[in-house]
Design brief:
single chain; 590 residues; alpha/beta; 7-stranded mixed β-sheet; 18 helices; elongated; Nucleotide-diphossugar_trans; Glycosyltransferase family 34 protein; transferase; signal
């Protein structure tokens, strides 16, 4: 009996080894389980547009195999000169004013991958938040997220309506808080399928629209950790002569995690796109272009393909000299892996030494669960951003301070005070505007209002640190539009407002009632200037609006989204907004 048990045990061991061996030999690295594997070999319908057939091209290869043998480029993983010794962030102090950039970095990413974009901003560009946004891209690189829509979530049971609504609300907030994205609402069933569209948008739309020039375009997913300096160094070493340059890094030649394309090569690839994608073997334009140009007798685009590790879970197995690591999905892995390959953030904009003397237009980017302002939020934020850019100011939108109020058991509108307190130390003045307030007169410089308040102020005990207004018929100020100066007095004032607990959930005024209460306290009156019973200087309700007024505040009892959208449309078309958002008079009782 013991001998029989021994035979059974030996047989079981051999069986397990056989299963493990079979699983390894059939292992695939498709990161999108919703994408049917058989689709990868189906022919695609060629995209519309022109493309010239290269007369020097050999007959197109049948199987998806490179005609030139794939040889691992040792420089990609083993070149010691491409291994920076520090990961410290060095802010750029000298601005680039040439409108020419070394690299245009395009990061294709699903709209649901919000956290990935947070990682990329911080790790690759040193952007930890949006409190000090780039007023202009005056670094040596410029980047954009190419965000695509995805409808396949409808087929996944985990994605409930409530979950997706939360995702959409967060996406709206991101769009308002950052100006580093382009959105295309198309379904993408493979992460590589969108690379060609992203390259086309970058070369044929973004570059001419921004009137810039670039040496090269770098493409990678938001799940890839990339050492951009290593990629650029390898590109400099890869002398292509008169030919363009196409470099890719991936686990295999047909599964790239990142690509670098010289701008001449990018234009040539897009020009010949129909020919490159003719056989439809690959949904990925970059891989198809690599095979296409490898098959040319005369080298017009030099193709180099380097190996990059797929993240498997063991950090010690990742070479420190790697330039790219692919498919990193967990937050806990991101920073250790970035340090492992010595990623150094590249600042997309220079430090502004005069920022603390500037003004920031501050607003909310928080979308409430009722989705009332979802459609109007982004146009409203754009209106404020355009105003800020026109006058050389900064634009900041914040949602986190509103979201956290749920856990403080206060009305979320109290997030306004927290957002002001967090942003104020970075600027001289803040112009707070509620989401339903828009700039109607883009020519009005807010500094003129500040100077007017300072001149009219008769209480000289303290300098004017807060400027607000009280509408004609209201019993207290309206806190939808406020000016706050970065002074020790105003910071203490805001702290005092936060202490007025009786207003935390007291309808209908909440934080507005707390501000008014503190203003009435003799200890706090000296630093506030009130435009009393003033409906035109800085905060105008629709019923009082006259042509030329600065800010219109659509704050009715219902949802103001329709009125905000209509007013913004009129402003863009040069039409008057008089009467927009004015509620019809109630009929008199019989």
């Amino acid at each position: 009996m013991p001998i029989r048990r021994t035979y059974w045990a030996i047989g079981l061991v051999f069986f397990m080894l056989l299963v493990i061996s079979h699983r390894r030999s059939n292992y695939t690295n498709d990161d999108d389980n919703s994408f049917p594997p058989e689709r990868s070999q189906q022919h695609q319908k060629p995209p519309p547009g022109g493309g010239s057939e290269d007369s020097r091209k050999k007959p197109p290869p049948g199987p998806p195999v490179l005609e030139k043998p794939y040889i691992r480029d040792p420089a990609v993983l083993d070149h010691s000169s491409n291994n920076p010794s520090t990961t410290s962030f060095k802010p750029l102090t000298v601005p680039n004013t040439s409108n020419h950039y070394d690299s245009l970095i395009i990061i294709p990413t699903s709209w649901t991958q919000l956290q990935n974009r947070v990682w990329v901003r911080e790790t690759l560009f040193g952007i930890k938040n949006n409190l000090e946004p780039c007023a202009r891209y005056d670094g040596n690189v410029i980047y954009k997220f190419y965000i695509y829509g995805q409808s396949t979530w409808l087929k996944q049971g985990i994605y409930t309506a409530q979950y997706m609504q939360a995702q959409v609300r967060s996406l709206h907030g991101e769009f308002m808080e950052f100006d580093d994205w382009h959105f295309t609402n198309r379904t993408v069933k493979s992460r590589h399928a969108v690379w060609g569209e992203a390259l086309n948008w970058a070369v044929n739309t973004f570059v001419p629209q921004e009137k810039i020039t670039v040496d090269k375009v770098i493409l990678f997913d938001s799940t890839s950790i990339v050492n951009v300096q290593k990629l650029e160094s390898l590109a400099r070493e890869a002398t292509a002569g008169t030919a363009g340059l196409l470099m890719t890094w991936g686990e295999t030649p047909t599964n790239p995690f990142a690509a670098l394309v010289s701008f001449p090569a990018a234009t040539q690839i897009l020009k010949n796109r129909v020919s490159i994608e003719k056989d439809g073997t690959f949904m990925d334009l970059i891989t198809a272009a690599s095979i296409y140009y490898n098959s040319q007798i005369v080298e017009t685009v030099k193709v180099l393909q380097g190996e990059a590790p797929l993240w498997q879970g063991d950090i010690d197995q990742v070479p420190t000299s790697a330039a790219v690591i692919g498919l990193v999905h967990q937050l806990e892995d991101w920073n250790p892996l970035a340090q492992r390959i010595a990623v150094q953030p590249i600042s997309p904009c220079a430090v502004d030494p005069l920022r603390n003397k500037s003004i920031a237009v501050l607003t909310s980017s928080y979308i409430y669960a009722d989705m009332c302002m979802a459609e109007a939020a982004l146009p409203s934020a754009d209106n404020k951003r355009i105003y800020a850019e026109k006058h050389g100011y900064y634009f900041v939108a914040r949602a986190a301070e509103f979201a956290q109020e749920e856990f403080r058991h206060r009305q979320r509108v109290w997030g306004k005070i927290g957002a002001i307190q967090k942003t104020l130390p970075h600027y001289e003045w803040l112009l707070w505007m509620d989401m339903d307030a828009i700039v109607a007169n883009l020519d009005q410089d807010v500094r003129e209002i500040i100077r007017k308040a300072e001149a009219l102020n008769v209480n000289k005990q303290n300098e004017v640190s807060i400027i607000v207004s009280r509408p004609l018929k209201d019993v207290m100020l309206n806190a939808g539009v406020m000016l706050i100066k970065n002074t020790d007095w105003s910071r203490k004032f805001l702290n005092e407002v936060q202490r007025r607990k009786t207003w935390y959930n007291q309808r209908p005024s909440y934080e507005q009632g707390a501000i008014w209460e503190v203003m009435q306290d003799p200890l706090w009156t000296s630093g506030v200037y009130l435009f009393d019973r003033d409906v035109h200087t800085m905060n105008t309700f629709p019923s009082f609006y006259e042509q030329g007024d600065f800010i219109v505040h659509f704050a009715p009892a219902g949802c103001p989204a329709v009125s905000v959208i209509q007013a913004l449309g009129n402003i863009r078309s040069g039409e008057s907004i008089v009467g927009v958002g004015v509620e019809p008079p109630k009929p008199k009782a019989a």
